[in-house]
């Protein structure tokens, strides 16, 4: 027969909304071979997650039982369970959790209370659970939210927030305020919403939308889709074959990564400004000409160009370039660089008629 279970009282907690709290059961029950945990608040029918011994468990209802724990938590102080506090607009203000520990000698029970601070709207620092698809809404305040290894949904809501997706296919929504969103690895969806936001897709094929004021969107590596929407935005496709849409406002569109040793090398980017006085950047004063490496295999496409509103930025002088019909049998003008006529840009639409390299709509740096 096993020795009796030794217990230490579990303290009560005051919890903030949307945060998770960990408790090592081995610190309060010695000699148990199974645990039953009950008393969780309603979760609107959605599964709830608990980490135990480093492994994830999903369950519905208000209870969960772990069996055969002897040896699994011994010497692993980081183990235990984590209770995700509900993050709905009106979460359960308090609830009592009951823990029953058992072995062949019998059982011991203890309870502890969770009180959710209703007036907490401060600056939160929240990290999602690993191995789960976390849904976290930080609400008011200037918050920092980190996802984890799952496909997470992070919402900054009101305030100047930082949302960090990490790995997984994440969805990040900044909400009101001037926010910073970083997708991390994999294929993410980033939406800035109201405010002047900075969105970084980072690795993966990402979708970025500014939505609000004057936003900065950087796709990072991968084949990304960037949409500035309203106001004056800076869109940078960076690595990969990217599609940039400025929409309304006076936007600056850069398909390549200006920090690369060979910006635009091996890429085909599409730069669409739509309305407003837009700038299409095909070179700069430091790296000079973008897309200058693989003849006709890398270039930027400008589907809509207005000679009276838009500008194309190039490096050097007009004599460095040649305008001739674009290849591939399309009705467009090709911008070629150097004596070897390396294609760097294709200009389509009504604005291609009579393009002149010395005109004011070409800006040389």
Number of helices: 0
Q: Determine the strand fraction and express it as a percent band.
A: 35-45%
The count of strands amounts to 36
What characteristic shape results from the CA principal axes?
A: elongated
Low-confidence stretches: 68-80, 84-91
- State the end-to-end distance: 84 Å
Rg, Cα atoms, Å = 28 Å
The count of domains is: 2
The CATH topology of the largest domain comes to Alkaline Protease, subunit P, domain 1
Mean pLDDT: 83
Helix content: under 10%
Q: What is the structural class? A: mainly beta
How would a textbook summarize the main sheet?
A: 12 strands, mixed
Give the second-level CATH assignment, the architecture of the largest domain.
2 Solenoid
The CATH class of the largest domain is identified as Mainly Beta
Walk across the major sheet and give the strand order: 13-15-17-19-21-23-25-27-31-35-34-33
GO cellular component, one term: extracellular region
GO molecular function, one term: calcium ion binding
InterPro entries: Hemolysin-typ_Ca-bd_CS, Hemolysn_Ca-bd, RTX_toxin/Mannuronan_C5-epim, Serralysin-like_metalloprot_C
Subcellular location: Secreted
Structure write-up:
The chain is mainly β and 365 residues long. The protein folds into two domains: 6-116, Sandwich (Immunoglobulin-like); 125-364, Alkaline Protease, subunit P, domain 1 (2 Solenoid). The chain is built from no helices and 36 strands. The strands form seven sheets. It has a twelve-stranded mixed beta sheet, with no helix packed on it.
For the structure shown, list the relevant keywords.
Alkaline Protease, subunit P, domain 1, 0% helix, Immunoglobulin-like, single chain, 365 residues, eleven-stranded parallel beta sheet, twelve-stranded mixed beta sheet, mainly beta
